[in-house]
Amino acid sequence: MSQLPKPYQQFGEEHGSVYAAYEALGQAAANAGPLEAKTRELIKLGMSAANGSESGVQSHTYRALEAGATADEIQHALILGINTLGFSTMMAALTWAKQAIAGRPK
Predict the structure, then answer these.
(1) In angstroms, rounded to a whole number, what is the distance separating the alpha carbons of residues 81 and 52?
(2) Which end of the chain has the smaller Cβ count within 10 Å, N or C?
(3) How far apart are CA 25 and CA 91, in angstroms?
């Protein structure tokens, strides 16, 4: 959990049982279909961008990297949203993802 956004980490520390239930729901959804982890995380990255969620974009950037996505794949997933989300929303998400990629421990 160390690479996840601080507010998410803090929520887990303060509300452990709710956090655990939320994580279990996410795991159940992940196990409900055939998509592999990298694809799931790239989809969630796009959904976070569409929602305008900076912490979501950062979190799913980290998770996508952990699942084997490259920085180029992450950027491409976000650039695909240009027509649907609009240029400014896509650029904000791309900026947040680049910051997360640059700030991750090596």
Answers:
(1) 12
(2) C
(3) 30
Q: Which domains does the chain have, with CATH numbers?
A: 6-103 (1.20.1290.10)
- In whole angstroms, give the CA distance from residue 92 to residue 106: 24
Distance CA 96, CA 55 (A): 8
Q: Count CB neighbours of 68 within 10 A.
A: 11
Report which of 12, 15, 101, 96 is spatially closest to residue 64, judged by C-alpha positions: 101
pLDDT digits (tens, 9 = 90+) for 51-90: 999 999 999 999 999 999 999 999 999 999 999 999 999 9
CA 23-32-55 angle, to 5 degrees, is 35
